[in-house]
Automatic annotation (TrEMBL):
Gene3D superfamilies, alphabetized: 2.40.160.20
Record's signal peptide: 1-23
Name by which UniProt lists this protein: Outer membrane protein OmpW
Alphabetized InterPro entries for the sequence: Enterovir_OMP, OMP/PagP_B-barrel, OMPW
Transmembrane domains' residue ranges: none
Top-level taxon of origin: Bacteria
Keyword Lipoprotein: no
Organism field: SAR86 cluster bacterium
Gene Ontology cellular-component annotations: host outer membrane; outer membrane
GO biological process: transmembrane transport
Pfam families, per database record: OmpW
Protein keywords: Signal
Length: 225
C-alpha cells in the first residue's frame, strides 16, 4: 500500500514536469498583455537660440500604459516579436536654468518595436530570452500646456503656441522571461532599452534636441496558441 502511494506520487511529479516540457516550439504564436512603463533617461541639449538662456534645457516624465507583445516562434529557440501598446502621454518640462518655469508641453506617442529573439530554455518552466530590434517612435500629438503657453507669451511668440517633434528610429535591446503556469498560460516579465531621440521645435522659434533613451518595463500574462 505504501509502495503504491509512493508510485502515485512519483508519477504525479513526473506528469507535472511533463506539462512544462517543450514550453515553446516552432510554429507557436504567443500573445502577451500587461502593464508597460516607459522611464526616460534623457539627455537634453541646450535650447536654441541660447539668448533665451545659456543653459535652458528640457526633460520628460515617465508614463504607464497597456503593453502588448506578439511573438512567433520560428524554431524552438528563435522568434520574432512585435511590441505594441496603447498610447503613452508624457509631459515635457523646462529644465536647467529654466527649471522653475514648469511644464512646456505634452506628447502622445506609440513605440512599436520589431525584435528578433533567442530563447535559452524551451524545455522548462522558466524560459529566459534576449532580443535585439528596431524601434519606431511614432508621435501622435504634441501640444503646449497652459503653463507653456503662458511662458511663450512672456517670451513673445506672437500667439504661436505650436509644438513640433520629430519621429525617431533606433535600436532596441531586450531581456525577458516567461514563467509557464500551464502548457499555454504564462507570466511574463520583460525589459527593453531603447535608442530614442527627437528634436522639439517651439512656436517655430526655439529648438532643442532631446535624447530620451528610455528603459521600458512590462509585467503581464501570456497565452500560447
Amino acid at each position: 500500500m505504501i509502495k503504491k502511494k509512493y508510485l502515485a506520487g512519483i508519477i504525479g511529479i513526473a506528469c507535472l514536469g511533463c506539462s512544462f516540457s517543450q514550453a515553446h516550439e516552432a510554429g507557436d504564436f504567443i500573445v502577451r498583455a500587461g502593464i508597460a512603463s516607459i522611464n526616460p533617461s534623457e539627455d537634453s541639449g541646450v535650447i536654441q537660440p541660447t539668448i533665451v538662456s545659456p543653459n535652458g534645457r528640457v526633460n520628460i516624465d515617465s508614463d504607464t500604459a497597456l503593453g502588448l507583445t506578439f511573438t512567433y516562434m520560428l524554431t524552438d529557440n528563435w522568434a520574432v516579436e512585435l511590441l505594441a501598446s496603447s498610447p503613452f502621454t508624457h509631459t515635457i518640462n523646462f529644465a536647467g536654468d529654466l527649471g522653475a518655469l514648469g511644464s512646456l508641453a505634452t506628447a502622445k506617442h506609440l513605440p512599436p518595436t520589431l525584435s528578433g529573439q533567442y530563447f535559452f530554455n524551451t524545455e522548462g518552466k522558466f524560459n529566459p530570452y534576449v532580443g535585439v530590434g528596431i524601434n519606431y517612435l511614432m508621435l501622435l500629438e504634441t501640444e503646449s500646456t497652459a503653463n507653456g503657453r503662458a511662458v511663450m507669451d512672456t517670451i513673445g511668440t506672437g500667439g504661436n503656441y505650436s509644438i513640433d517633434a520629430d519621429d525617431s528610429i533606433g535600436l532596441t535591446f531586450q531581456v525577458g522571461v516567461d514563467i509557464n503556469l500551464t502548457d499555454r498560460l504564462m507570466v511574463n516579465a520583460a525589459v527593453w532599452k531603447m535608442d530614442i531621440g527627437t528634436t522639439i521645435e517651439v512656436a517655430n522659434t526655439l529648438r532643442v534636441d532631446l535624447e530620451i533613451d528610455p528603459w521600458v518595463y512590462m509585467l503581464g500574462l501570456g497565452y500560447k496558441f
